[in-house]
């Protein structure tokens, strides 16, 4: 089932911990499916690159800027002073302003709900993650939450555009504007402004605590959710839990100039790294999101079905899904389904 189109070059960061094992799985599945992609692999360096002040080299960032598309494994930032977090460096340097996390029930893998089908869209550049923390006096510290009109409009615009182009009917802005009147208030104001341009999409505002309760009671109430940085971090993990855990949930970071960097939601899972136990599904599904972004829809659907069918069949599942298969056995089963 190989394609005759000229290959597309995409950046691949295998990353740390279980990263190289699950990246290997993606490469195998993509090769078996005949996906026309050449991977440009970049590893996290062991030394700080003074040009990025981080363990990510300038060349690796340039690779994403040039290719405009990439797949990233989890990266664990080494502890110590004088360098920036790897994930923050990527977000800032590549202007990855929105993090899109689809969350849907996998047919054949039973959880409490079988009708979850929602998308969380997280503002990725500011809010509580501005890194502006300091001590005022001994025993009193301060952390600045930054919300700007520009970043809020940008992520709201992305959310409504996504809803419209993906046949979604509703956008819910998640907030705590009753307490954070200025910051979350501005975020909501921007969402409302954008909502007016999309009369065909229903717009609603939901306070975050109520949102958590509703998600746990009846996740089918939601369609597309858009929210500031920290709320997005928490809500998307909650949503991952609804459909079977971190081993299953993909995401894609959207940047300016059309950059798309897909990545699994989970971290480097140091507890199981190097043991051939990791579930590669989250990174594989992130790869599927990347393929859809590249309009390689046929291969995307083919790989997606092979993953779903393998999990549904139940014969080969990794330990996090209650099975006994290794990463390589599960990967081979997917390839056999292609
Ligand atoms: P990091 O600091 O990089 O986020 P972490 O210690 O928080 O690492 P996570 O990667 O966030 O670890 O994982 C949390 C838990 O979920 C761990 O017990 C890990 O083993 C498990 N887990 C995460 N990803 C996977 C996966 N792909 N397959 C199986 N288990 C996973
Ligand atoms: Mg973690």
TrEMBL record:
What would be one Gene Ontology cellular-component term for the protein? mitochondrion
Q: Does the keyword NAD apply?
A: yes
- Which keywords label this protein? Magnesium, Metal-binding, NAD, Oxidoreductase, Transit peptide
What is an annotated GO biological process for this record, any one? isocitrate metabolic process
Q: What SMART domains does its record include?
A: Iso_dh
Work out whether the entry's keyword set contains Protein transport. Answer: no
Residues annotated as domain Isopropylmalate dehydrogenase-like: 9-334
> Which Gene Ontology molecular function entries are recorded, alphabetically?
isocitrate dehydrogenase (NAD+) activity; magnesium ion binding; NAD binding
User: InterPro entries, alphabetically?
Assistant: IsoCit/isopropylmalate_DH_CS, Isocitrate_DH_NAD, IsoPropMal-DH-like_dom
Subunit record text: Heterooligomer of catalytic and regulatory subunits.
* NCBIfam families with a match to the protein in the record: mito_nad_idh (TIGR00175)
Its family? Belongs to the isocitrate and isopropylmalate dehydrogenases family.
What's this protein's name?
Isocitrate dehydrogenase [NAD] catalytic subunit 5, mitochondrial
């Amino acid at each position: 089932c190989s394609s005759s189109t000229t290959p597309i070059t995409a950046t691949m960061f295998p990353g740390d911990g279980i990263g190289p094992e699950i990246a290997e799985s993606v490469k195998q599945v993509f090769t078996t499916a005949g996906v026309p992609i050449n991977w440009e692999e970049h590893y996290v360096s062991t030394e700080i690159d003074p040009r990025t002040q981080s363990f990510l080299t300038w060349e690796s960032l340039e690779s994403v800027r040039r290719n405009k598309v990439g797949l990233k494994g989890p990266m664990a930032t080494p502890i110590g002073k004088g360098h920036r977090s790897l994930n923050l460096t990527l977000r800032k340097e590549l202007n990855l302003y929105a993090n899109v996390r689809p969350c849907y029930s996998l047919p054949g893998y039973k959880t409490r709900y079988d009708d979850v089908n929602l998308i969380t869209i997280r503002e990725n550049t500011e809010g509580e993650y501005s890194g502006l923390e300091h001590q005022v006096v001994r025993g009193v510290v301060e952390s600045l939450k930054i919300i700007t009109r520009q970043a809020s409009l940008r992520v709201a615009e992305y959310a409504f555009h996504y809803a419209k182009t993906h046949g979604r009917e509703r956008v819910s802005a998640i907030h705590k504007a009753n307490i954070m009147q200025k910051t979350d208030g501005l975020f909501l104001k921007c969402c409302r402004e954008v909502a007016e341009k999309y009369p065909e999409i229903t717009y609603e505002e939901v306070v975050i605590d109520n949102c958590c309760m509703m998600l746990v009671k009846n996740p089918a109430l939601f369609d597309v959710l858009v929210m500031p940085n920290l709320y997005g971090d928490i809500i998307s993990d909650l949503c991952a839990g609804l459909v079977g855990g971190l081993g299953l949930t993909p995401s894609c970071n959207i940047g300016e100039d059309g950059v798309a960097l897909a990545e699994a939601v989970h971290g480097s899972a140091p507890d199981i790294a190097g043991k051939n136990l990791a579930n590669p599904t989250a990174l594989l599904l992130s790869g599927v999101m990347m393929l859809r972004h590249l309009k390689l829809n046929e291969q995307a659907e083919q790989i997606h079905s092979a993953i779903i069918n393998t999990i549904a069949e139940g014969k080969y599942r990794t330990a996090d899904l209650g099975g006994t298969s290794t990463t390589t056995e599960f990967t081979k089963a997917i390839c056999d389904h292609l």
